[in-house]
């Protein structure tokens, strides 16, 4: 196991009608849909990892474990954080969390989990799948 470098990101999002379960096809309610929460968590892992990538490198998601624990309504601000927790070769595992934001700062935990990404050479990756 390689020593884990410090890498983290926090990104605020505001829930819109396009982010709801009804809009993304994951239910009928006008609250933050799990697929959108997942996309936001992945965006936070990319933001945390990007500064550590070398020229021509990118990362691809390979494993996701996410619990959606509380609702967020349209207009609600949600802060999503990602922290690099484990490194092994090209593998990077992140702890992710999302919290509703209120006037006093972070509030209810909306979701938490782990996302694994693998660092790849972008050109080689694309050449392999286009051939």
Automatic annotation (TrEMBL):
InterPro entries: FlK, FlK-like_dom, HotDog_dom_sf. Residues 15-122 form the Fluoroacetyl-CoA-specific thioesterase-like domain. It comes from the Bacteria. It holds the Pfam family FlK. This is Thioesterase. It comes from Nocardioides immobilis. The lineage of its organism: Bacteria, Bacillati, Actinomycetota, Actinomycetes, Propionibacteriales.
């Amino acid at each position: 196991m390689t020593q884990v470098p410090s890498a983290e990101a926090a990104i605020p999002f505001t829930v819109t009608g396009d982010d709801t379960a009804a809009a993304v096809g994951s239910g009928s309610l006008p609250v933050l849909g799990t697929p959108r929460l997942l996309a936001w968590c992945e965006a936070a892992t990319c933001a945390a990892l990007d500064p550590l990538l070398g020229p021509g490198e990118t990362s691809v998601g390979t494993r996701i474990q996410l619990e959606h624990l509380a609702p967020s309504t349209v207009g609600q601000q949600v802060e999503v954080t990602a922290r690099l927790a484990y490194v092994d070769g090209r593998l990077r595992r992140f702890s992710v969390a999302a919290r509703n934001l209120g006037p006093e700062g972070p509030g209810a935990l909306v979701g938490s989990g782990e996302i694994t990404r693998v660092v790849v050479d972008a050109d080689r990756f694309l050449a392999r799948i286009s051939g």
